[in-house]
Amino acid sequence: MKKQKIIIGAVIALLLLIGFGVWNKWMSTTRIAFINYQTITLGQIGRANDNPLIKIESLDADDIAKADGYDMVFVQAMGLRLTEEQRAELEKAMKNGTPVVSTLITNPDNDFCSVDTANANRMKAYIDNGGRENYHNLLSYVRKYIDKKIIYASEPGKVVERVLGLLYHADPNRPDDEDKQFNSLAEYNKFLKEKGLWKANAPAIIITGSMGEPKELIAELEKTGNMVYPVNSIQQFVEAHHADSIKVSAIINMAHGRLGDAFVDYLKRVDVPLFAPLNVNQQEKKWENDKMGMSGGFLSQSIVTPEIDGAIRPYALFAHYVGKDDLEYVAAMPERLGSFVQTVNNYIALKHKPNSQKRVAIYYYKGPGQNALTAGGMEVGPSLYNLLVRLKHEGYNVAGLPDSPEGLMQAIQRQGAVFNLYAKGAFDDFMKNGKPALVTKNQYESWVKKTLRPEKYQEVVKANGEFPGEYMSTPDGKLAVARVQFGNIVLLPQNAAGSGTNAFQIVHGTDAAPPHTYIASYLWTQYAFKADVLIHFGTHGSLEFTPKKQVALSNLDWPDRLVGTLPHFYLYTIGNVGEGLIAKRRSYAGLQSYLTPPFMESGMHGAYAELSSKIKLYNQNIGKNKALLQQTSLAIKAIVVRLGFHRDLGLDSILTRPYTEEEITRIDNFAEELSNEKITGQLYTLGVPYETARINSSVLEMCTDPVAYSLFTLDKVRKKATEALLKHRSEFNSRYLYPAKALVQSLINSSAEVSDAFVCKVGHLSPDDIKRAHKIYDDLNAPSDMMSMMMRMGSMSKKNKGGKGMPMGMGMAKGMGKMPPEMAKAMSKGKPMHAKQGGMPPMGHPGKMPKGMGKKPENMGGHPTTKGKTMPQMGKPMPQMGKPMGGKAMQGMPKKGMAGMAAMMKDKKKSYSKEEKDFAFAVRELERTLKNIAKYKQYLLISPQNELESIINAMNGGYTAPSPGGDPIVNPNTLPTGRNLFGINAESTPSEAAWEKGKQLAQNTIDLYKQRHNGAMPHKVSYTLWSGEFIETEGATIAQVLYMLGVEPVRDSFGRVSDLRLIPSKELGRKRIDVVVQTSGQLRDLAASRLFLINKAVEMAANAKDDVFENEVSIGVKTAERHLTEKGVSPKEARKLASQRIFGGMNGNYGTGIQAMVMSGDRWEKREDIANTYINNMGTFYGSEKDWEQYNKYAFEAALTRTDVVVQPRQSNTWGALSLDHVYEFMGGLNLAVRQVTGKDPDAYLSDYRNTHNVRMQEVKEAIGVESRTTILNPVYIKEKMKGGASAAGGFAEIVENTYGWNVMKPKAIDKELWDDIYRVYVQDKYKLGTKTFFEQKNPAALQQITAVMLETVRKGMWKATPQQVADIAKLHVELVKKYKPSGSSFVTDNAKLRKFIASKVSPEQGKDYQQQIEQVRNSAANANKGTVMKREDMSQKVEKHSPLLSKGLVIGGAVLLFVALVVFIVRRRRNTNAE
Fold first, then answer.
1. For residues 422 and 427, what is the distance between their CA atoms, to the nearest angstrom?
2. Distance between terminal CA atoms of the chain?
């Protein structure tokens, strides 16, 4: 019996085992994995799956080791980047029997296939054609023929050749069905009428693109009164003139890449806005909590490249949601859909609403009290007035507008002032006379309820208390909103996005929320004033810099909430494209570019004639008369010491010891630099062309260097010159620069067109030389990567026009660019992957995707029909990936598809020697420059009018054409202005040219350090990364970082830098040098993937084996680890932190948080207080996506150990170390931090990229010497700036403030003599220019500030001024305060020690009167003793040196402290202009 039971049990077990085997082999669930497929595609495949025994899953590349657990694996190969380990795992799965098929193969290495050709081609055909029926058949095919199951294994149908129509639309009666396709507009319009969707005379909106599921969007647009035209191929729709039959009002592109230059031409013609809403490519909640928002390839293809088409409003609209089988699908976010549609409708409404009824809110930036309005490079008062006059001319209601700019400024000072907490008295006066808008608690709370989630508003209350808070509040509990209103136009000051406090250190992890008054101002604009248009006037304000998500903002981000659905335009200088892109992406602004100030030569050419003649004599006697040589050297030295050059160059001043030949060469080069330095002229006024002389001088500065260096390069190729000549500036200038300048000047004065024959004559070239140069140049610029080649094959029929970034017609919208007759008349008189980060996901909906891109399906009757679709390609027109061609593949496509194309590219590019390349580029540069001189001149002339026309056109719902940005001297393609700035594709950086520059500059840094330190090499070099430099140099500073580490970029088949190669030690020829990188918030936002690249490079360098030289990176990591453990960090954590090298602002901030501290002289006594604050505030590390925005209080300090050099980029002629406060803030702050950590002052070098033909490293002290001598101490510069008004006067004050900032951060950079010279020029009026009169007439507050800063420098012991100097300055300062009242600047008004010092330097009566006047500003009569007024001064004078978590500020205010960062970077950044 027992035996029988055992037998029965065994039989049952065997039957179960057999049954399990049978089930598993023929009946079990078929698991199918999709790698690197878009969620949109997977969602559609999921919807096609009605088989309960088929399970579809998305498999990330990170989880590729799980591939062998699936019954079928599909790999979408386009843009797929796999590590060697991931590739090995997939190949292992294939070897073990897992069926794998790749589609869209762009890289032969990604051509994975482990099934027979017939099966592979059948499955590819299903996928290529797409659509629900094909996807259903695909799944059935896999289950029946690949997994070989017998139940729920229906016979798959044939491949349905899915031909997409011209347009598509869901059937309202069957919304879950696939979209209906329409082959003509007539057919589509008939459908609309049948379904009740036709609306006569309704606005028409075209929807295109592949990155969203537009069904809900279309329905909402139709619901709000629009006619919607969803098209499958916008290129075909436009090229075949179907679009001409529609009176289009707006276009929405769910973008993944560009639409192309021909499409830009279409947009200019129809003059309608192009919207580019975003798919955030992750689940909604995850995205909301994502600090980055979007980065990597998706950032490039969804935001960066569409901007080149002129797209606006990168508004997060689509997200992922979990559906059937836990498979994600894409849909519009319900909370955001209505807002986006309302935004589109608001722009369209601008086309139809009469100008007389439009309500416009314009935000300006000004300092507190009497300080002038400021904007980068602009004279703001007259500029704002000119815009208002133009609005009046266009029919806007500007009732009550004063008769002059001066009248407008008086009204703004009276009614549109800005106050800080300390100025209670001034605020009381404003409440009596300024007529502010008063906001009640009920109003405010109703607005908040409409705008903010409850948890978001709680951040505000936590940071600022209950409404109304302290700032701008009235005794009866209301909030005052300062504004000046003229009819339907209201002008509002940009309030500080934070409130003052004494604790300058930022607390990590706290939420930042603006004060109630900041929020109330924008909500008042939306709900009380009911604005139709929002404008931010001039570079720049603060809204775009409120911290949180970097791009693809959510309902939890302040700019998203405060801009709301208003059409938003931002007048932005072309010189600051880096920060402009932040405004564009974070505040949804359509940028309207305006000119920089004009450029001119320093005017110092004859100032050093005696020195030049002596140096010439010295050079003539080298190797000849030794005695005369020594005598001449001593004579040179006497002149140099008298001029003070020795201080700038770090030379000795012993008059009996002659200078060496090398030292005299440095002196000669310095004098030549002073003579030829480019300086800016009078600040630009909107709508007013430069003076004729300044147009000419600007063109001269644009064109001289390109001509000179092109001719020099040609001579090098001909062996008539050598690179060594660049080290002798006077000789180079004599042979090349000065003749080039004369040539350009003659062409400026000539009306004759430059011919090829003339170019040949100038360059000593033959026509055949020109042809050969063109041939080499074209070959070198032939498609070298997949995207370029596909673009050449399938570009729209209209050829690319114009130069780089400058389409034909100067990029202006229809009807623009013409100068009014009266102006013309007046002028006659005078840039491992997964879904979120991975480079380029597959493009387009399946079925709407380009066909014929895989291998040819052998089991089908011909190729599927190809549909036009956008392909991502930076800066070039997008290809139409094959028009419908009746079964033909893409024209020019290799027979082996894209894999064949990739292989073909290896043989495509011809090889040329360095000399041939140099020759070709020199000829092209010479040609370009000479032939465009007249064009540049014209562009400068017409730009002011273009700017006004462009902003008016935008306010009428029109299109603003795209434009590159940056220094127009370096990149004239920024002209003409009045266009919408775009950036570069970060994924392609550093570019090949940037890599060469970076290598050169890294080597120059090493050489310069060795010269200064007896042949020793640096252990570690620190770098600052700024967005402006990154965009304008295409990543040259990142290239420096990589080369220092001994790592080089590796480009993939799409031209992206997706990997790195460790340069072998012998090849490198030197030791690997360690680095530490601090990033600005702007660069962090624009190029996060490049920070990850640097982090990887550090790890590679630190782990390098078999180096023949010392490895400073490896040593640095060990030193940092030791430093961390000594500070109490656990060994495990220390090992993790020791290799962190990329640091930036805390809590997503954009600045360092120290500028306000530096300028608050009574709040700190020792520089170490500032250094510790800097280390804390910049101590967040950004090395990888996993460790994004992490903080450890000792990590930055550990990374700074062993630092010998700090390097700062300088790419623009519009600013320098003195004129831009961010230089002392970042470079000076880092310098001070290094000194605090290492105990020694590091070398400080600028990477000077301003001359693209001769990049170089320059010591910061020398650079400051050049700048001070050619600007604030140069009568030519002073006179030019004095042609301006209040903003120009304020500019002088800013330079003096920055001089003080440098004195604090790097004392060796500023000499006593510089302060003496400032005293002589601005107090004694050394040049008899009438400076005092100028300041008194234009901006007395500026001279008050200059004198106050000078006195604080004395009080802090940084300038040993004479008693007479101090008395003179104090007397002037006190007299100005008495005559014009206190300016209200925090530098004095909120610095008790300085006020007391000033009062002590004049008579007791004057001192008492002075103090009383300040107190009137500080204290109100009714609240004289209110604690909040004196709060900052009553607090401890020292900043806590311990953990920020223990700071007094936390005890007092908690999250409020975070706003110091905003005060620092926003309030102090108000004017600064061209850093980023």
1. 9
2. 90
Looking up tokens 């050169």, which residue turns up? 1000
228 and 207 in contact (C-beta within 8 Å)? yes
Is this prediction's pTM over 0.85? yes
d(CA 904, CA 894) in angstroms, rounded, equals 8
The partner residues of 439 in beta bridges, in order of sequence, read 479
Q: What is the pLDDT of residues 1333-1346, one digit of tens each?
A: 999 999 999 999 99
Per the prediction, the chain carries an average pLDDT of 87
Return the bridge partners of 1205, or none.
1021, 1243
Q: In what order do the strands lie in the sheet with 227-230?
A: 227-230, 204-209, 248-254, 274-275
Ramachandran bin of 516, using left for φ above 0, alpha for ψ from -120 to 50, beta for the remaining angles? alpha
- State how far the Cα of 667 lies from the Cα of 688, in Å rounded to an integer: 40
Closest CA to 1097 of 1080, 1118, 1076: 1076
In the beta sheet, which residues pair with residue 1051?
1057
Q: Are 259 and 282 within 8 A, CB to CB?
A: no
Q: Per the structure block, which two tokens stand in for 288?
A: 């909301």
The predicted pLDDT at position 784 comes to 62
Q: Phi/psi at 1087 (nearest 5 deg)? A: -145, 50
Size of the chain, expressed as the number of residues it contains:
1476
pLDDT for res 1420: 58
Cα separation, 114 vs 91, in Å, equals 9
Rg for the chain (alpha carbons), in Å? 33
> What is the rounded CA–CA span in Å between residue 1313 and residue 1361?
10
Beta strands in 991-1084, from DSSP E residues, in sequence order: 1020-1025, 1047-1051, 1057-1062, 1074-1079
Start-end of H helices in 355-404:
380-393
Are 484 and 415 a contacting pair, CB within 8 Å? yes
Distance (Å, rounded) from C-alpha 349 to C-alpha 249? 9
Query: For 783-834, how does the pLDDT look when each residue is reduced to its tens digit (9 = 90+)?
Result: 665 555 544 443 443 333 333 333 333 333 433 333 433 333 333 333 333 3
Interatomic CA distance for residues 1415 and 1382, integer angstroms: 10
The span from the CA of 957 to the CA of 352, in Å, is 9
Q: Over range 613-638, report the average pLDDT.
A: 93
Q: What are the tens digits of pLDDT across the range 676-689?
A: 999 999 999 999 99
The β-bridge relationship of strands 533-537 and 489-493 is: unpaired
Half-sphere exposure of 316 (CA within 13 A, CB side): 32
Q: How far is CA 671 from CA 606, 660, 663, 1029, 1312, in A?
A: 10, 17, 12, 27, 21
d(CA 1154, CA 1170): 7
Cα–Cα distance measured from residue 61 to residue 57, given in angstroms and rounded to the nearest whole number: 13
CA dihedral 949, 954, 959, 961 (to 10 degrees): 50
